[in-house]
Amino acid sequence: MSALTTPLGDLAGVGRPAVRALAAHGLHTVGDLAGRDWPELAQLHGVGPAAGRRLQAALAEHGATMQDPPAPQARRAVITPGATGTGASDLKTHATTADPAEHVAGLEPRRRRDGEALLEIFGAATGASATMWGPSMIGYGEVHYRYATGREGDTFQLGFSPRKAELALYGLQGFPHSEELLERLGRHRRGAGCLWVRSLEGIDLEVLRELIAHAWTHGPDGAGP
């Protein structure tokens, strides 16, 4: 499923006022913004420069653009391998000592099967141990991020969350061959920071293994370019 069909409300950095204002003008997905005049959209209440840059960046990832788009911010987010212990005081998601296998074992049968499979797949593809982050996310590796705004914190490099409605797969987009692999993956939808999959039965697990290994190699903790 193309990221151009991603709902605007799923994009991190685009606030609800902006989403509501754009929806009132018939703009609901990233692709709806292609070819639209940015100076005109910037006049809408709640649609500021930061939202405009995020929207333009989402379009640019797929070769699309708004007309007369906002200039990119000079600063950018920086992600480095390893945790530093430094982060915003209001961060709620941290690594815990809970056992990922025990967490998965306590899920309802369908998600337990998916969770067990993902533990095996992520573990084999990364060679790293699984860690619980917050109550429901399972991560591999540690990275430190610092946004252009100055906000920073520690998180996992790759991971997943076996949620009841859909499986969330984190950190697998934006690498040299990610798009090619995603086209072969099977039924999924894309959010700003994760992939959503209803069931592992709907995707190619061998491609998923390739996707995870590729992201791990080319991410902050790997040796890839």
UniProtKB/TrEMBL annotation:
Residue segments, region Disordered: 81-101
InterPro entries named in the record: DNA_repair_Rad51/TF_NusA_a-hlx, YdhG-like
One function term, GO molecular function aspect: nucleotide binding
Domain of life where this protein originates: Bacteria
Domain YdhG-like: from-to ranges: 111-215
Record-given protein name: YdhG-like domain-containing protein
